[in-house]
Design a protein that fits this description.
Blueprint: E1 2-5, H1 11-26, H2 32-42, H3 45-53, E2 57-64, E3 67-75, E4 91-99, H4 108-122, E5 127-133, H5 137-145, E6 149-158, E7 161-170
Parallel strand pairs: 4-5
Antiparallel strand pairs: 1-2, 2-3, 3-4, 5-7, 6-7
Helix pairs in contact: 1-3
Length: 177
């Protein structure tokens, strides 16, 4: 498997991947009208081209056999939400982290996370944070293994509904367990 930085020319393929993975993750968990509203707002070639052109964001793509299998979207902005204090002066958000279910058990998620954390540290960030839906037990277990710890909560709107997310942080100095 290959992990590489996304390029502007990847916008269409990245958009298709991002929508497919979000849809496969949440189709049975979020009512269809809300799911479709979120997909229309958050994903598509225009949205992903905008993200790829944004200097505050970096996207790592995971490829296998010439096929996109996952991605990590990193976003340098603002303080860690849902916390009264954060120990970081220059945090980086892991805004999205998704892999094709076919990669489960291959070590691909671990490799992509290690690359994302290395990217954050290499860019001078002293911490990374992410939001995870409180009901996504699989992701929560993975993030705990990766060294993320809970520090607060925040809300995430999908269509007309508001869901509760946990805010997790990583100090970038801890190795993956």
């Amino acid at each position: 498997m290959l992990i590489r930085h996304a390029l502007p020319a990847d916008a269409d393929a990245f958009a298709a991947l991002a929508e497919r993975l979000w849809r496969s993750t949440y189709t049975d968990l979020i009512p269809a009208p809300d799911l479709e509203a979120h997909l229309a707002e958050a994903f598509g070639p225009v949205q992903q081209a905008t993200e790829l052109a944004d200097g505050a964001r970096r996207t790592l793509l995971l490829e296998g056999g010439g096929v996109l299998l996952g991605y990590a979207l990193l976003h340098a902005h603002g303080p860690v939400p849902g916390t009264s204090s954060a120990a970081f002066t220059k945090p980086l958000e892991l805004e999205r982290f998704y892999l094709d279910p076919a990669t489960r058990g291959t070590g691909a998620a671990r490799e992509l996370m290690e690359a994302a954390l290395a990217e954050a540290a290499g860019a001078g960030h002293d911490g990374a944070w992410l939001q995870v839906w409180e009901q996504n037990a699989r992701a929560r277990r993975f993030y705990a293994k990766a060294g993320f710890t809970p520090v607060g909560t925040t809300d995430f709107r999908v269509g007309s509904r508001v869901y509760h997310d946990l805010v997790l942080v990583h100090g970038l100095e801890l190795p993956f367990e």
